[in-house]
Each structure stands twice: as structure tokens, then as C-alpha cells.
UniProtKB/TrEMBL annotation:
<dbReference type="GO" id="GO:0031410">
    <property type="term" value="C:cytoplasmic vesicle"/>
</dbReference>
<dbReference type="InterPro" id="IPR011990">
    <property type="entry name" value="TPR-like_helical_dom_sf"/>
</dbReference>
<feature type="region of interest" description="Disordered">
    <location>
        <begin position="21"/>
        <end position="45"/>
    </location>
</feature>
<keyword id="KW-0597">Phosphoprotein</keyword>
<feature type="domain" description="MABP">
    <location>
        <begin position="44"/>
        <end position="203"/>
    </location>
</feature>
<dbReference type="InterPro" id="IPR001194">
    <property type="entry name" value="cDENN_dom"/>
</dbReference>
<dbReference type="InterPro" id="IPR005113">
    <property type="entry name" value="uDENN_dom"/>
</dbReference>
<dbReference type="InterPro" id="IPR051696">
    <property type="entry name" value="DENN_Domain_GEFs"/>
</dbReference>
<feature type="region of interest" description="Disordered">
    <location>
        <begin position="925"/>
        <end position="1043"/>
    </location>
</feature>
<dbReference type="GO" id="GO:0005829">
    <property type="term" value="C:cytosol"/>
</dbReference>
<feature type="region of interest" description="Disordered">
    <location>
        <begin position="718"/>
        <end position="743"/>
    </location>
</feature>
<dbReference type="GO" id="GO:0005085">
    <property type="term" value="F:guanyl-nucleotide exchange factor activity"/>
</dbReference>
<feature type="compositionally biased region" description="Low complexity">
    <location>
        <begin position="728"/>
        <end position="738"/>
    </location>
</feature>
<dbReference type="GO" id="GO:0032483">
    <property type="term" value="P:regulation of Rab protein signal transduction"/>
</dbReference>
<dbReference type="InterPro" id="IPR023341">
    <property type="entry name" value="MABP"/>
</dbReference>
<dbReference type="Pfam" id="PF03456">
    <property type="entry name" value="uDENN"/>
</dbReference>
<protein>
    <submittedName>
        <fullName>DENN domain containing 4B</fullName>
    </submittedName>
</protein>
Length: 1333
């Protein structure tokens, strides 16, 4: 598969501003004034000086100063409260541009605090008297004004104080909008009202024309089909318009302003933009006389005379657009381009850097977690992969939200967003608006804001503030220089940390929040707010290469930790706010009707409200009526693209339900950055090579940002074999139903680790993953089935079988896949039954499963007809079933009086370890694991009485044809006509083989010509002398291990599978249940632990494929179906956890259709043979054996595949002693019966409940593995269906303890006579019937 090309970091580069080409500016492009109440025009100059005069001392207001004589509400002011001896102080200010403006004011109480650094204390009046504002008298601290001035050379566009006022709270006056109020009272005395000073910070500019921005240039010129360039981009690049301004001639250019914005598409997808605004020279020739007069370029007295000492400048912007909120990287790139345009000359054009960055800088991915981009020898930026989190990716900065608003105001805004109020966020820093607004809509996760949302609103769209719907809008604070905010809007000033609201639209009090979650949230935010100052580093430091390579991880790691902690605090609050909501969801259980998607039909609102605190009912009443809550319930009920995020929120709810823990569990886990991660270096674009003999002189020099020239852009370099990725997340070809979310994988991993410590739970955990594997293959099985509806009902029966076996499911994929298939094939009733089965099992469906269920019920076509008829048929069915249940005890009583059954219990009790009392005759369900390997079990003619096919009984009949069904029917009839013999008689006959008639034996089958015939040597030699290794025994064992006698009558193929593996360290054979017990609870670990030497090794799954079709005979011979080995091999035997991960990856990349392709065994042999092993082990119907037929090019309709799962190895070691059960079979199939005293003695001791004697007997003659020798010999002699392995284990354990008292446990362990561990025994017991041997 070709390597995929990573997604780009940047998709578009644009230039916005006034259209060039030297044409005059049309008047109609001027931005109209937004509607709304107007304010007086803003002042043209900032405040540069403050002073205090004492009127009682005869001081006058200095020239050029303005005196504040009344409060903001028009009330008269008297700071000394008319006391005798008071100086009657008055505050004055002066405007101008002769010095840097004031940027901050303060109030100092002398003796109680020290002046802040950089502040000047106004302790004297201009006339050298005391400037104390407090009234005279003891106990009153001397009160002075303080101020801080902007730095020298700040320029025309430096922020400064534009207005001051005084407010009297006792007169009902509040802080004016966009003003900052000082916390110190100017009248700290006992007498007189409290007086507070307020000031406003802004830009004081005059002679400005504002026009709507236009698109001046873009790259690339063609739109991307998946992501076209929005037409409104220029307006958002310059939200306050493209301005033309008149400055004094020698004014310095201001520092470029960085801003960010977010555009939301019709489908809810977001596009992130970043712009850099700067000023350039503007030609006067493009201005009309009217425009020049408005800018102050013409004299107002002498018409037409131009004024000197003026310069005209215009504002432009360069911007990038992306689907990723990598704002710091965008800022560094745009700043580099601006510096490049104002410096020079250069050898490379500006267009080369733009195209190089767009085409060659990818977004970080797991393969490229860190990308260091070197734009020039002095400019670098580092990109890091975002933290893997189920939370949606956004441009939110919770740190800036908390730092700008504080804990109390942040919680107030959370309450306002939850109740869908109109929010207007404004600031003088446009880059702060987007990050704070994104945090506001992200803090209410999992709710999604459904109303208008404009983080940075352009001036031309300011009419949205009058909309009659809730909204969240961010706007530049200069908008309020001329306009008052609407009365029904909550205004948040990020620069002054204040909130302005009217009484009629005031949000609810935080006291209406749930008490305990509110207290926890407030305490957490307060603690984090105090830690913010320790994580700040300046932008100059972050731009250095040394910082990027050394301290970046540490500093950014601290910031990321605090960011996640703040986000986690809001997430925990929302989880507490909505906890238990899933209990009130109303699933659809009948045919849908009109209004089925209404929230009242999907959610029990009143029940949810009654389950909350009474003090919070007012909040919940407003919350339940919001659009975002209705959308949330609909997403939970019918699924959405946010299903992974909603499932993660459900896990957070489960964590907060346990409120008794002293330390809460973290909800958002932050992955630490590793210093060993791969860093990809991207070099600058290559400079053109200079011709030989000539100097490479720079040729590109710019006077401002140039117009883009298409011929100077670099063409993109296509990577060979790379595939384009259309978006941030490529959609897989398969359906999302079989996939597990990351949260489900984490939960499954934790469950596996917890279950590994308990033997029984570990076995059930493995079993649950095995069923999950089968349901992953269910779509392919249903598509290949003759009756798809019947296949769905078969899957439903498998679900019920899982419940009866008490399977521990790690997730809900089993139910989810079946529900999705019910929806696809129009079976809503079956989907309802699956949901009821799920509830019966005690499983609460998560968001993904619940959504698939409701979609199946809603979108499927229901059968038409009266429900009364179906109800009567259901009643009749219940009556018939009830009558059958009443007859069952009578039938059991008649069977108890049967003489055949009366003879069995005594024999069974005498045997002790054989079949328990009342065990029924083995039933034949089409499973190969029920076959016995003794010669007596074969039906007449050499065919198996009930050969199981991997396709189940129904598929086997379809493949075998009429002849196969007829042979089965005759086999069952013979079985019914022959009375069952007692087990005691059977054992007696087996122990005295010389009394048997030679005619009753099945003659040994003819071996294929390509297999060597076994040598006729007595195996007694190897039994009596175990140290001698005769070579003939291996050939005999190999011929019998291939099971050739079982394939003589089959027109198809045979498959032998065995998981028995040899440990590489100690050469011990480790069997299936011991391998399962040694697996680690890790979905990436292939090793198991040897139970004998505790060394890890990779177990192997051995496979042999035989073709038993009739071959073309030679002349004079008849057709014979002789097994012929086609292929064999061994592949890694995978844990169900590992296999599931690999299967999910295969389905994710190639789709579920690959599981039904004939190329699967050859393309993915490890996955195929492991799936076949587990499905046959659990007797689950599947189509995998059919793929073996297709891979062998067997096209006969009557062909079938017989699959056998063996306990022991397929190819024994030629140098080892053959197992006892093999010798028993060899001699039982031969006509000669030598005296096997050892085998008969072992079986006799086992039958007489003297297992310790059998162990002692074998310890003297055999090597390691006595437990397996005795068990396999007993199963071979009696048949596995007649041996109770649980009882055998108890007897063997008792015998082992008895021998350990005399020989010692260590001696027995060294000779490997111990039985399997409890973990291995539980695995064997949990996986059902034992394997064949």
C-alpha cells in the first residue's frame, strides 16, 4: 500500500486591503456605520498629564488642562466633603501628542503600601502644595494619584488613556462601559460619599477613512475541492476595515498587529485563520478632494491649499487559512514574511517562501510528531503533535480565559452560556478574542453551541448584535468609541476584567448551580489562577533556536498541563451537571410516528428534573429548554460524527459518580512529550544556482509587501507513491460500527489488566474477545449467507449463548454490529430484541450503540398489519411452550424408570472419574470437536457418523449435497436402533482387546503414494526401554497424526490445527490452556510464559491442509479418495487481544469485504488461521473453510472441508518417545494385539480411582509430561465425550499431593509431573469442550 501524503499545515495564503492599480478609491466602498445608538465622537488626542489642584488654596486650573467637576452621572463632586480645613482638591487632565500618553492610573495610600514600579506619584500640585485627596484629620491615610506613561518612541498607535471620570456608587452610578475602575476610594474618610476614579484605554486617532477590505492576492489560485476559499476572508482579515489614515510626516510605523478568526461552515466544520495587519504608504493621487479634506490634507480656510508635513498610510493584511488551530506557528510565519518584505535585497523571491511553506510543511502526525521548520538562518518554528484526546480540537486557550476573567467571572460566563444568553466579548487585542471565545464554547462540552458564533466580528457584520437570537460575538473595543452596546446583551471586557449587564437580562446567580460541583470548580480555578504567572515566557525568548531545542518541552509542557487542568475542571463540572442523564433516555421500541425526534419523546425531562437538587431547578429548567441540549439528546439517540467524544463524556460521568474518593480521578490525561521522539527538519527553499563565472547578487528588493507573481511560485513536488489526504481525518472504507473508540480500547486494556490477576476472569476476558472477533467478521458472514435474515437470527442466538456462558465483554461492539446489520437489512424487531437482551445482561448501551439502535428502529421498514393478530399468535405460542414445559417432568420420570439408565449410575460411581451421573448421550451439532478417534466410532463404510463442518449444519448440508445428508440420516438411525452400552462394559472390553473379533476392526486405510509406509515394529520396545529412540516410531506417529483415516470418504479437504508449541528455552511442550494462561494483558505482546521455565516465547499455530478429492486413476484402477498433503506451516498463535487489534486494523484499512475474499489465507495467513482456530474452538458458524476451498481451487459443489483441532503436536519429534495414546491407537487399529501391560495397568488404576499408582508407574518408565500422558491415554481409550476432565483433575491433584509427601514437590516438578495451573484449568473449562488428542 502506498504511503499517504500527510495533510498540509496551511491551505491558503491571502492578501487583503484596498485594491491597488493606482485607481481612485470609489466612495461606495466606504464601510457604512452600524445601526444602534451613537456616542459623542471620540477624542482625537490621548491624555498625557494628570494634576490635582487645591481650590481652597486659591489654585487655578493650569492652561491646557480640563477640570473634572461632576461625576459620570452629572452629580457635583467635593472630595473633602466640605470639612473645615479641607483643601477642596480637584482632578485635572491634559491631552496632547507632545509626549507619550499615560497608559495606567492608580491610587496610593501612603504608609500602607509602596508605589508600583514604573509609576509616578502625584504628591504635589502644579503650585507646589500637597496633592493629598483625603480629608484632613487623624486616622485618614494620605491619598495620592499615581500614573504610568508609555515608553518613549511608542508612536502614534500606542494604546493610551483616552478618557477619565469619577463615579459615586451612593448615587446609583456604575462603571461606564469599557472603562476600568480603580479599587481604591478617593475619599477614605468617615464623612462624605465614596468616590472612585475610572479611566478608559484606547487608540486616539483622527483623520481616518474606513473602507471594506478586498482580496488583493491568493495562493494557490485554484480552490481545493474539499476546502474552497471562503469569499468573506478579506473582511475577517481586516475586521475594522481597510483604513486610509493621515499621520504627521515623521511618525514611525507601528508594530504589526496579529489577529485570529474562525469561520464555521454549513456542516459545522471550522476553518481557522490568522492575519497580520500592517501599514504601508498610500499615494495621494488616489484620493479625491473630498477624501483629502476628510483626512486633513487640505486647508479648511484656504480652499484647495495642501497642508505640508503630512503622510498618508493604508492598512493591509496578510493571512493564512488552515483546518488546524496552530496559531503560534501562523504568527511566526506571517511575521517572517513581513520582515522579509521590509528588508533586503534577497536572492529568493517572497513567493518562493510562501509556496515552500504551503507545500512542504505538514501537520504533525504520529509518524512525524515534531517538525522543526527553518525559514531562514535566523527564523525557526517548532510544530508538535497535539495531545491525543477525545475532546474536539479547537483554538481555545483556557489559560487566557482564566487569566483575563478570573475564576468568579469565568463561572458567571459559563452559566450565561449554559442558559443561552447574548454574549459580546470585546478587547483591544484581536488575537485574544478568538482564543477566549473558543474557550467559551468549549467549556460546555459535551453541549455544542447552536446559535450564531463569530469570535472576531468584522465591522460590516456588526448588525448581528441586534439579532433576536442568542449569540457569542467578539469585537474590537474601538467599536464602542462611537456606539453603545444593545441593552439585552452581556458585555465582557477582557482588558479590564469587567462584565456589563442590565437587570432584565442578568444571568442567573452562581448559587443556582449544584452546590458541591460549584465549590469544587471554584476552588480548582482559584488554585490554577495563582499558578499562571509562573509559566510566562516572552515571545522574544520563544523565537530563539536554543529555546526551541532545549527549554521548549519543559515550558510548553507546564503550559499544556495547566491548560488541561483548567479544561478538566470545566469537564468535571459538566459531568456532575449531567450525571445520570442516560437513565432518562427513551429508546424507540415501535414503529416511528410523527414527532419521534422531539426531545420530549427521546428524553424524560420531568424525571431528570426531579432527580436534581431543588436549589438548582431554575437552572435546569432553562438548560433543558435550550437548543444545544435538544441537539445533545438527538446526537445521543441517533448517533453523530461526535460519537467518540460523547462516549468519552460518558466515561467521565462514570468517574465522577464515585464522589467518595479523596482524590478525584483525572478526566483529561496529558501525554508527556518524550525527548526521544522523532524530529523532522524542514530546510528553507533552495537558492538558485548562479551561472559559472558570475556573481550571485541578490535581485529581489521590496518597498512594502509586493503583489504576488504566479511565475515566481515553486511548483509542488509530488512524492512518489503518496496518496492525498483530503481532510484532517481520512474516512475508512469500512463502517464505523465494528470500530472501537480510543476510550473503549483504554477501558478494554484496563479490564484485561484487572482480569489477569483472577484466573476465572482472565479466561472470561479471553472468551469475550473471541466473541468480539466473530462479530467483527459478522458482516462478511451475513453477506455470504444464503438467507441473510436467518444469519442475523443466528447471530442473535450467539448473543444469547454469550449470556448463558457469562462472557465478560470488554466493549459493546458485538451488540453494535448486530444492530447496524439489522438497520441495513431492515430488521427493526430483531434490533429491539437485541436491545432487550443487552438490558437483560445488565449492560447500559453507550452513545454509539444507542445511536445505532435508534437508527435501526427509525430507518427500517416495519411490517404492516394489525398488532392484535401478532399478539394472538404470541399468546398461542406461549400456551404451546407452557404445555411443553409441563410435560417435561413426566418425560424425565419415564426416562428415570428405563432399565438402560438404571444400569449406568452404579457403573459410573464405580469408575469415579468417568462420565458423571445423568450425562446425556453426546448430541451432534455439526462440530468436529465431538468426534472420537477410536475405530469403533466410525460409521460403516469408513465415513464419519456426524462429521462437523465449519459452516455449521445448514452450510454442511448445502455443500455435501443429497448424498451427504443421506449418509447422516442412516448414521443417526443406526445410533437410535442400537442400545447404549454401559461405560463399565466399554472399559472392560477395551482393557481385554484379545477377546474382540478381528472382523470388527476397520482395516487400516491405504496411505497415499507420496507418504512413506510405516515400518511394522512393536512399540513395546520404546515403552519398556524409553531411553532408546527407534526411528520407526516417528513414522508411525506421523502417519497417525495426519489423521488419514478420517479423510478417506470426504470429497473435499481436511485441515488439522494444533496450538501445542515447544518452549525455546526448555524444549517443553506447552499446551493450549497453558499458552492462554501465560498470555499478557497487552494487545501488542505476542509472547506467552512457559509454565515450566517461566521464559517468554512466541507460541505457534501449526496447520496441515489435506486434499481428499478423488484423483485420476491409473489404467486398471478405480477412484480412491486418498488424503494428499497440500500445504503445511506454522504461524504465530495470537492472543485474542492481539488478534482483535490486528483484525481491526485490517478492516479499517481494507474494509470488511476482505474477510470474504479467497486471497485472505495467502495475504493474511496469521489472521486467517487464528480466526479459524477460535471460531472452530467455540463452534461458531463462519465462512473461513470455504476460503480454504477457494484457495485450493476446489469448485465441486459437493466438496466440504473438515477441520480438526488437536490438543497435541501435529509433527512429533522423531527422536522422542511416542505418546502412550498413539501407541494405544496403533495397536487398537492393527489386527495383532500384543500384551500392553503398561497401558492396561494405567487405565485400570485410573478406572479404579488409584491415579497415584498410575503416576508412580509412569514415573519409573517415562520422562516428563505424566499428566498429559495419563489424560490423553484415557481420552483415547474411552473417547473424550466419556471422560469428565474436572473429576480427573481432582483425582490427579489428590494423587500428586499424596506422592509429594513421599517424593517431594520439587522432585515432581523437575520431572514435570504437576498438573496445569488454576489459570490454565479455568481457560480450558471456559472455552468449552476439550480438544481432540
Amino acid at each position: 500500500m502506498a504511503e499517504e501524503r500527510p495533510p498540509r499545515l496551511v491551505d491558503y495564503f491571502v492578501i487583503a486591503g484596498l485594491a491597488g492599480n493606482g485607481a481612485p478609491i470609489p466612495e461606495e466602498t466606504r464601510v457604512p456605520e452600524p445601526s444602534g445608538p451613537l456616542r459623542p465622537p471620540r477624542p482625537a488626542e490621548p491624555i498625557t498629564d494628570m494634576a490635582v489642584i487645591a481650590r481652597a488654596l486659591g489654585e487655578e486650573v493650569p492652561q491646557g488642562y480640563t477640570c473634572i467637576q461632576s461625576s459620570a452621572g452629572g452629580h457635583p463632586l467635593e472630595l473633602s466633603a466640605g470639612l473645615l480645613g479641607g483643601t477642596q482638591p480637584v482632578i485635572c487632565y491634559r491631552r496632547g501628542r507632545d509626549k507619550p500618553p499615560l497608559v495606567e492610573l492608580g491610587v496610593l495610600y501612603e504608609g500602607k503600601e509602596r508605589p508600583k514600579p514604573g509609576f509616578q506619584v502625584l504628591d504635589t500640585t502644579p503650585y507646589s502644595h500637597s496633592a493629598n485627596l483625603a480629608p484632613p484629620g487623624p486616622g485618614h491615610p494620605r491619598t495620592y494619584l499615581t500614573c504610568r506613561r508609555a515608553a518613549e518612541g511608542a508612536g502614534l498607535h500606542a494604546l493610551g488613556i483616552t478618557d477619565v471620570c469619577l463615579v459615586l456608587p451612593s448615587k446609583g452610578e456604575g462603571t461606564p462601559h469599557t472603562y476600568c475602575r480603580l479599587p481604591r476610594n478617593l475619599n477614605p474618610g468617615v464623612w462624605g460619599p465614596a468616590v472612585y476614579l475610572c479611566y478608559k484605554v484606547g487608540l486616539a486617532k483622527a483623520h481616518t477613512l474606513v473602507y471594506e477590505a478586498e482580496l488583493l492576492g491568493r495562493y494557490p489560485e485554484e480552490d481545493n475541492e474539499a476546502f474552497p476559499l471562503p469569499e468573506s476572508v478579506p473582511v475577517f482579515c481586516l475586521p475594522m476595515g481597510a483604513t486610509v489614515e493621515c499621520w504627521p510626516a515623521h511618525t514611525k510605523y507601528p508594530v504589526p498587529v496579529f489577529s485570529t478568526f474562525v469561520l464555521t461552515g454549513a456542516a459545522g466544520d471550522k476553518v481557522y485563520g490568522a492575519a497580520l495587519q500592517f501599514y504601508e504608504a498610500f499615494p495621494r493621487a488616489r484620493l479625491s478632494e473630498r477624501q483629502a479634506r476628510a483626512l486633513g490634507l487640505l486647508s479648511a480656510v484656504e480652499r484647495g491649499r495642501a497642508l505640508g508635513g503630512r503622510a498618508v498610510r493604508s492598512r493591509r493584511a496578510i493571512a493564512v487559512l488552515s483546518r488546524w488551530p496552530a496559531f503560534p506557528a501562523f504568527r511566526a510565519f506571517l511575521t517572517f514574511l513581513y520582515r522579509y518584505s521590509v528588508s533586503g535585497p534577497h536572492r529568493l523571491p517572497l513567493e518562493a517562501h510562501i509556496s515552500h511553506f504551503i507545500h512542504n510543511v505538514p501537520f504533525p502526525s504520529p509518524q512525524r510528531p515534531r517538525i522543526l521548520v527553518q525559514m531562514s538562518p535566523y527564523d525557526n518554528l517548532l510544530l508538535c503533535q497535539p495531545v491525543s484526546s477525545p475532546l474536539p480540537l479547537s483554538g481555545a486557550s483556557f489559560l487566557q480565559l482564566l487569566q483575563s476573567l478570573g475564576p468568579e467571572l469565568a463561572i458567571t460566563l459559563l452559566l450565561a452560556v449554559l442558559t443561552e444568553h447574548k454574549l459580546l466579548v470585546h478587547s483591544l487585542r484581536p488575537d485574544l478574542l478568538t482564543s477566549v471565545c473558543e474557550a467559551l464554547v468549549s467549556m460546555i462540552f459535551p453541549l455544542h453551541w447552536q446559535c450564531p458564533y463569530i469570535p472576531l466580528c468584522p465591522l460590516v457584520l456588526a448588525d448581528v448584535l441586534s439579532a433576536p437570537v442568542p449569540f457569542i460575538v467578539g469585537i474590537h473595543s474601538s467599536y464602542f468609541d462611537l456606539h453603545d452596546p444593545p441593552a439585552d446583551v452581556i458585555c465582557v471586557d477582557l482588558d479590564t476584567n469587567t462584565l456589563f449587564q442590565t437587570e432584565e437580562k442578568k444571568p442567573l446567580s452562581p448559587r443556582t448551580l449544584p452546590r458541591r460541583p460549584y465549590k469544587v470548580l471554584l476552588a480548582t480555578l482559584t488554585n490554577l489562577y495563582q499558578q499562571l504567572d509562573q509559566t510566562y515566557t516572552g515571545p522574544e525568548e520563544e523565537a530563539s533556536l536554543e529555546f526551541l531545542l532545549t527549554d521548549y518541552e519543559a515550558v510548553c509542557g507546564r503550559r499544556a498541563r495547566l491548560e488541561r487542568e483548567v479544561q478538566g475542571a470545566f469537564l468535571r463540572f459538566m459531568a456532575c451537571l449531567l450525571k445520570g442523564y442516560r437513565d432518562f433516555l427513551r429508546p424507540l421500541t415501535q414503529a416511528p410516528s410523527e414527532g419521534v425526534r422531539d426531545v420530549d419523546n427521546l428524553f424524560f425531562l420531568q424525571g431528570f428534573l426531579k432527580s436534581r437538587e431543588r436549589s438548582s431547578h431554575k437552572l435546569y429548567c432553562q438548560l433543558l429548554r435550550t437548543q444545544m441540549f435538544s441537539q445533545f439528546i438527538e446526537e445521543c439517540s441517533f448517533g453523530s460524527a461526535r460519537h467518540a467524544a460523547l462516549e468519552f463524556f460518558d466515561s467521565c460521568v462514570d468517574k465522577v459518580l464515585d464522589a467518595e474518593k479523596p482524590e478525584p480521578t483525572p478526566l483529561v490525561e496529558l501525554e508527556e512529550l518524550s525527548g526521544s521522539e522523532l524530529t523532522v527538519f524542514i530546510t528553507p527553499p533552495e537558492e538558485p544556482a548562479a551561472p559559472e563565472g558570475s556573481d550571485s547578487t541578490p535581485q529581489y528588493c521590496y518597498d512594502g509587501f509586493p503583489e504576488l507573481r504566479a511565475e515566481l511560485f515553486e511548483s509542488p513536488r509530488e512524492q512518489p507513491g503518496a496518496l492525498p489526504v483530503p481532510g484532517p481525518s481520512r474516512s475508512a472504507p469500512s463502517s464505523p460500527a465494528p470500530r472501537r473508540t480510543k476510550q473503549e480500547m483504554k477501558v478494554a486494556q484496563r479490564m484485561a489488566q484487572k482480569s489477569a490477576a483472577v484466573p476465572e476472569l482472565w479466561a472470561r476476558c479471553l472468551l469475550g474477545h473471541c466473541y468480539g472477533l466473530w462479530f467483527l467478521c459478522l458482516p462478511a458472514y451475513v453477506r455470504s449467507a444464503p438467507s441473510r435474515v436467518q444469519a442475523l437470527h443466528t447471530a442473535y442466538q450467539v448473543l444469547r449463548q454469550m449470556e448463558s456462558r457469562k462472557v465478560v465483554l470488554p466493549d459493546e461492539v458485538c451488540y453494535r454490529v448486530l444492530m447496524q446489520l439489522c438497520s441495513h437489512y431492515g430488521q427493526p424487531v430483531l434490533s429491539v430484541r437485541v436491545m432487550l437482551e443487552m438490558r437483560r445482561a445488565g449492560i447500559v448501551p453507550n452513545t454509539i450503540t444507542y445511536g445505532y439502535y435508534n437508527k435501526a428502529v427509525l430507518e427500517s421498514k416495519w411490517l404492516s398489519g394489525t398488532p392484535g393478530g401478532r399478539l394472538r399468535w404470541a399468546k398461542l405460542r406461549n400456551v404451546v411452550l407452557g404445555a411443553a414445559q409441563f410435560r417435561q417432568p413426566l418425560k424425565e420420570r419415564r426416562e428415570a424408570l428405563s432399565p438402560t439408565v438404571l444400569l449406568c449410575p452404579a457403573v459410573i460411581e464405580a469408575l469415579g472419574v468417568l462420565e458423571p451421573r445423568g450425562s446425556p448421550v453426546p448430541w451432534h451439532d455439526g462440530s468436529l470437536s465431538d468426534l472420537s478417534l477410536t475405530g469403533e466410532e466410525l460409521a460403516p463404510g469408513g465415513s464419519l457418523e456426524d462429521s462437523g463442518s465449519a459452516l455449521g449444519a445448514q452450510s454442511t448440508e448445502a455443500l455435501e449435497g443429497p448424498s451427504g445428508r443421506a449418509s447422516k440420516a442412516s448414521g443417526r438411525q443406526d445410533e437410535a436402533s442400537t442400545p447404549r452400552r454401559g461405560l463399565g462394559a466399554r472399559l472392560q472390553q477395551l482393557l481385554t482387546p484379545s477377546r474382540r473379533s478381528p472382523a470388527s476392526h476397520v482395516p487400516p486405510p491405504e496411505l497415499p503414494p507420496d507418504l512413506p509406509p510405516p515400518t511394522r515394529r512393536s512399540p513395546m520396545d520404546s515403552l519398556l526401554r524409553p531411553r532408546e529412540r527407534p526411528g520407526s516410531t516417528a513414522s508411525e506417529v506421523a502417519s497417525w497424526g495426519g489423521g488419514s483415516q478420517l479423510w478417506g470418504s470426504q470429497r473435499g479437504g481436511g485441515i488439522l490445527l494444533s496450538s501445542c508449541s515447544s518452549c525455546r528455552a526448555c524444549d517443553s511442550l506447552v499446551y493450549d490452556e497453558e499458552i492462554m494462561a501465560g498470555w499478557a494483558p497487552d494487545d501488542s505482546n505476542l509472547n506467552t510464559i512457559c509454565p515450566f521455565c517461566a521464559c517468554p516465547f512466541v507460541p505457534l499455530l501449526s496447520v496441515q491442509t489435506l486434499d481428499s478429492r478423488p484423483r485420476c486413476p491409473k489404467q486398471g484402477q478405480c477412484f480412491r479418495a486418498v488424503p494428499r498433503r497440500v500445504e503445511g506451516g506454522a504461524w504465530a498463535y495470537l492472543s485474542p487481544l492481539v488478534l482483535r487489534k490486528e483484525l481491526e486494523s485490517l478492516v479499517e484499512n481494507e474494509g470488511s469485504e476482505v474477510l470474504a475474499l479467497p486471497e485472505l489465507p495467502a495475504a493474511h495467513p496469521i489472521i486467517f488461521w487464528n480466526l479459524l482456530w477460535y471460531f472452530q474452538r467455540l463452534r461458531l458458524p463462519n465462512i473461513l473453510p470455504c476460503l480454504v476451498l477457494a484457495s485450493l481451487f476446489i469448485e465441486h459443489l459437493s466438496a466440504s472441508v473438515q477441520v480438526r483441532l488437536l490438543w497435541d503436536v501435529l509433527t512429533p519429534d522423531p527422536s522422542s518417545c511416542p505418546p502412550l495414546y498413539v501407541l494405544w491407537r496403533i495397536h487398537s487399529e492393527c489386527g495383532v494385539w500384543p500384551s500392553l501391560d503398561l497401558l492396561e495397568s494405567v487405565l485400570r488404576h485410573v478406572g479404579l480411582n488409584e491415579v497415584h499408582k498410575a503416576v508412580g508407574l509412569l514415573l519409573e518408565t517415562l520422562g516428563p509430561g505424566i499428566y498429559r500422558e495419563i489424560l490423553f491415554l484415557t481420552m483415547a481409550a474411552l473417547g473424550k465425550d466419556h471422560v469428565d476432565i474436572v473429576a480427573f483433575d481432582k483425582k490427579y491433584k489428590s494423587a500428586f499431593n499424596k506422592l509429594a509427601s513421599s517424593m517431594g514437590k520439587e522432585e515432581l516438578r523437575q520431572r514435570r509431573a504437576q498438573m496445569p495451573t488454576p489459570k490454565a484449568i479455568d481457560c480450558r473449562k471456559c472455552f468449552g469442550a476439550p480438544l481432540e488428542c
